[in-house]
Amino acid sequence: MRKMLNTLYVTTQGAYLNKEGETVAVNIERETRLRLPIHTLSSIVCFGQVTCSPFLLGHCAENDVSVSFMTAHGRFLARVQGPVAGNVLLRRAQYRQADDPVASARLARLFVLGKVVNCRTVMSRALRDHGEKINAPEMPKKVALFAKVARNLLQEESLDNIRGIEGRAANDYFGHFNDLIVSQKDDFVFAGRNRRPPLDRVNCLLSFLYSLLYHDARSALETVGLDPAVGFLHRDRPGRLSLALDLMEEFRPVLADRLALSLINLGQMRKKGFRTLESGAVVMEDDSRKVLLTEYQKRKQVEIEHPFLKEKIPLGMLMFAQAQLLSRYLRGDLDEYPPFIWR
Amino acid sequence: MMVLVSYDVATSDPGGAKRLRRVAKICTNHGQRVQYSVFECIVDPGQWVAMRQQLIDVIDESQDSLRFYFLGTGWRRKVEHIGAREAIDQEGPLIL
């Protein structure tokens, strides 16, 4: 297994990154604040007005370090990619199966299965940990329902039906999301998912976390040589990385939703860490963003045993492991893709 | 794994300043400078072999010296810092 390398997040506006020997130097106000050997990094994420020298970008491409640019609020803008690498045969296998509706459905339902089961775990864990504070008598019933949905999914063969099930399950899940918030209930109210722009603080947190996941899913897929743009559950659309979205589904509840909930419930996020713009969009202040990124990075270091590989790996390597399993399935080395089921 | 590299290069010797610069450069390429001639490097065994050889090639063994301390992967328990210029944790969250 590959070692989990670090990700450098640069959120200071006006920062400049350049190559110094084999290191990445971060300059803030003409002063080198940090020098990191490139071999300790797997990616660099720049937020807002952060610039990189062309030589650094080239050096990163050579060393398999992905560089992404986001707006200050975390919306993805661009990434820099080196020469095309990876395995043509694997990619061809991916395209063939993506063109075949039966094969696509077979994979799509496993992605959705992973998501549904993991959403269920988020709810049942919340019930177990602070059931007395959750004022939703119908929740245990919903948890049971999700288990049934998961079972039904395995019989489903039409892609459209699978997408329908996914949509309904997501609706149900987000319908109960507000009940999972047990402290600061007046400051963090969730009345349904909205995005572009997020209109409340909870959606703002979720959107930001999802864009981090998107970035990680894309890098994981590219590392194993898959084309992140050609998906099975999500259809091709210009500019969208459909396979990255597919792969994310299993991880949304585990890495993002759960983290957003604990940030709110443990009081690490406060009302004053957010700002509402005139357009109604809610954005995070710099300090909240730093807290969130720190916690996200910490969470990625937590080790668990992978249910399929039976190996101890950090949460941050999960997507990479899943991307590798997916490529093995597409190549025909595995009979079925094993989605990540969180226990 | 974490390797602590420290060195002494004789700068009184002609060419000593050049060797010192080269040694420092190899070290910054692989790790973090924690004191003037002390570096903490997080490397895998392959990278370590390469780095070690580069250092040995640069120094003059009759006058300079290198010391390597192998702290392994559980190095956090073995390092304590007191005073100014606290080093950053290269494996922790990197947010600037």
From TrEMBL, chain A:
Record key words, sorted: Antiviral defense, DNA-binding, Endonuclease, Hydrolase, Magnesium, Manganese, Metal-binding, Nuclease
Cofactor(s) listed: Mg(2+); Mn(2+)
Known EC number: 3.1.-.-
MF terms (GO), sorted A to Z: endonuclease activity
Annotated Gene3D superfamilies: CRISPR-associated endonuclease Cas1, C-terminal domain, CRISPR-associated endonuclease Cas1, N-terminal domain
Residues noted as binding Mn(2+) in the record, renumbered to the chain: E166, H234, E249
A Pfam family per the record: Cas_Cas1
HAMAP family: Cas1
Protein role: CRISPR (clustered regularly interspaced short palindromic repeat), is an adaptive immune system that provides protection against mobile genetic elements (viruses, transposable elements and conjugative plasmids). CRISPR clusters contain spacers, sequences complementary to antecedent mobile elements, and target invading nucleic acids. CRISPR clusters are transcribed and processed into CRISPR RNA (crRNA). Acts as a dsDNA endonuclease. Involved in the integration of spacer DNA into the CRISPR cassette.
Subunit structure, interactors included: Homodimer, forms a heterotetramer with a Cas2 homodimer.
Stated family: Belongs to the CRISPR-associated endonuclease Cas1 family.
Protein name: CRISPR-associated endonuclease Cas1
Lineage, uppermost ranks: Bacteria, Pseudomonadati, Thermodesulfobacteriota, Desulfuromonadia, Desulfuromonadales
Automatic annotation (TrEMBL), chain B:
Coiled coil: none
InterPro entries from the UniProt entry: CRISPR_associated_Cas2, Virulence_VapD/CRISPR_Cas2
Top-level taxon of origin: Bacteria
This enzyme's EC code(s): 3.1.-.-
Top enzyme category: hydrolase
Pfam family, one: CRISPR_Cas2
PANTHER family per record: CRISPR-ASSOCIATED ENDORIBONUCLEASE CAS2 (PTHR34405), CRISPR-ASSOCIATED ENDORIBONUCLEASE CAS2 3 (PTHR34405:SF3)
Protein name as annotated: CRISPR-associated endoribonuclease Cas2
Organism name: Geoalkalibacter halelectricus
